Amino acid sequence: MTPSRHEPHDTGAEETEKRREKVQQTREQLGATVDAIAAKADIRATAHDTAAAVKGRAGQVATQVRDKTAHAGHLVQEKTAHAGHLVQEKAAHAGHLVQEKAPEPLRQRADQAGHKARENRIALIAAAGVGLLAAAVMRRRRKARR
Question: What are the pLDDT tens digits along the chain (146 aa)?
Fold first, then answer.
């Protein structure tokens, strides 16, 4: 069998097509590489992306701080109410002791003080709450200094 004239021509056409495809792939790869290098060299875009990430993180931290602050506020309210009840119990106990063992003029003055405390119960509870809050703040500051 003798080779026909079309075979070498067909082989040449196929090879030319393969080369064109390879050139096209190389162009696409080169384009992608250039785009990647341009993106890395774009300082403004990088700074913008970094700023957006920092802003997002700051928002998360602010939310966490707000939640912790609200939780701490609830704890202070609970402890203040508990302290107020303890103060009332101790005052009542002290009043009973005074009534049992104190002389009559001292008893009268203690009764007057007890009546004043009952009349100003809210102020007494608030003062106890402020004392607890101040103690908690001082304790945290001491821990932070360590």
Answer: 445 554 555 677 888 999 999 999 999 998 898 888 887 777 887 788 889 999 989 889 989 988 988 898 888 888 888 888 888 888 888 767 766 776 777 667 767 887 877 777 787 777 888 888 888 888 888 888 87
For residue 144, what are the CA distances in angstroms to 70, 106, 140? 21, 47, 6
Please choose, from the candidates 77, 94, 71, the residue with its C-alpha nearest in 3D space to the C-alpha of residue 132.
Answer: 77
Spatial contact of 134 and 78, defined as CB atoms under 8 Å apart: no
**What's this model's pTM, rounded to 2 decimal places?**
0.36
Tokens of 97: 């002791």
Q: Are 87 and 124 in contact (CB under 8 A)?
A: yes
